[in-house]
């Protein structure tokens, strides 16, 4: 019996980030659209060839997009918010970039679409915006062109389409004035509690069903036999309105003779949606078994309840881990499933391979972990090995003995009110002080110096001198702009997690292990391979140097333990809690060293604090316990007069404000510019006792924000936060911008803050 094999998606960035460089060259006007598309299609073809070479049964088509699949789907459906009315003169490629970046050739700069996390990953999707009277004018010609190109590989095709209900669930409704009317920004997987909002969103089902039906008919006419319909919200705690909508939608879409619809879920088990999912009137179901708890065997429950005519695709290969699979153990699952399902069994990855690096063959792997890793290309081989029975025991996968680790978490003894009073008297900052999140532009000079140093063409002393020159320039620019609290600019850091991983024991840094975060932005997540310890101070010399150049306060900049963990690949045989507490101890020691060096404000970034939260309510309390405990521990070495800041960005925080409050940072800076002030509304409803700096402009867009746009955020914040506890800052770091953009935006920020101060004083 031949078992069908397929994947849910493949990394689209290219093995050496070719898509990133092609996109950025096109945005800068250094290449034509035709040249960009040619390079993009070469990566697309390489992805298909990898699947063919591995011997997969089905070729996955439709997962390759230029920026984000939800964004692409929105543009294909003609969902262009009114503020992008000039998009009508653009072709679909430029329309996507306009919505994502707020900038396009011959178009007025506007606020980009909101960006937030894709469920519990570090990938960001663009949130579609519906008007209350939204209509749909579908154009899937680019998808059909992909299909035509894929046919040249002479392998049966499976086309990927975002599910109708997941697409609606992750969208939001705005009114004609672009103010938020209802919001469903649920990349974090939080449940919908507003039934009226759910009904407002679900009203679009009737308009979208004919669009999907027409798409499926066209796919069938083009010879496509299988369609992967991504409906990951089936793993969430769905309200009854959404469960009922699934039954209705798929009953209306089921009659497609000759076209097999495979409803696809991932990132969790089906939980209480099991009965709903297995009985949807479709040809098959995909489930992710890589996220099951030890001993849970939820996949057996699915097999037991699956109707006897349906396909079951088992996601066996972990699409979010870089560790090699235990093939003998997985083969036991395959053998059991094969007895129950026969030729109705398909094998796949748990989720898209978008979340792992492309190819391990590009790396020089240390002997200690050689044979233990598998990137996307190697996971294809693992999948085919399971299907063909070519099973081998990987002796290198034996569990590595690691020391037991337990930590009695510490916290600062003084309450915020006491600390804040001491700090206010000590720093004597103006009302609503201005600062930035930490990083400044990573210039060509910085990159060139780093590249030469890494190749051995620049001495340590010359590299340090080059970095100090950039730090001095950053301080000079901030003083000219008259910012109140400065940063050193992080010239020496490639990435906020990678930098610290390179200085801590217990990590391995790959050379080409890039993973897409959003658009052209790629990160290289470190791999945790052992116990984490801090052999030396990591940041002190750079901050001390910056501090020596100015009479103003310079913040020390650290990355928090939860973020380092969530943006790394965790070890195979250790709990996340243990790893996070080890990281917390390392950061606690760094805080103490910075404080001893005279650094009076220290920012411990927790950009990913929300990201790792389990998707189900029942599993969340344990995460919050160790996440909050870890942050409080790493800041516990700060004395009463040392001000601890933290930063969070691009996630859905509305249901975790109690935990953010419990972290007890003196100041939190947080994204608010793209999310339409929703977060400020949550602070207004629930209250927040400490100081806060709402992000007043979106740094991910190249457009220069106006002072009026920034003022809108501050005006909203002043309705909730007393002026003496309010800061002003961008919503994230500035490393991806250039200095011209940075200076222009920060000048607007400082001028606006001074104007507000004058008005408040009057």
UniProtKB/TrEMBL annotation:
Pathway the protein acts in: Amino-acid biosynthesis; L-methionine biosynthesis via de novo pathway; L-methionine from L-homocysteine (MetE route): step 1/1
GO MF annotation, one: 5-methyltetrahydropteroyltriglutamate-homocysteine S-methyltransferase activity
Gene3D superfamilies the UniProt entry points to: 3.20.20.210
Stretches assigned to the Cobalamin-independent methionine synthase MetE C-terminal/archaeal domain: 432-754
Keywords of this entry: Amino-acid biosynthesis, Metal-binding, Methionine biosynthesis, Methyltransferase, Transferase, Zinc
Binding site for L-methionine: 437-439, 490, 605
InterPro entries, per the entry: Cbl-indep_Met_Synth_N, Cobalamin-indep_Met_synthase, Met_Synth_C/arc, UROD/MetE-like_sf
Parts forming coiled coils: none
Residues the record lists as binding 5-methyltetrahydropteroyltri-L-glutamate: 20, 122, 521-522, 567
Primary role: Catalyzes the transfer of a methyl group from 5-methyltetrahydrofolate to homocysteine resulting in methionine formation.
Name this polypeptide is given: 5-methyltetrahydropteroyltriglutamate--homocysteine S-methyltransferase
Organism: Acinetobacter brisouii CIP 110357
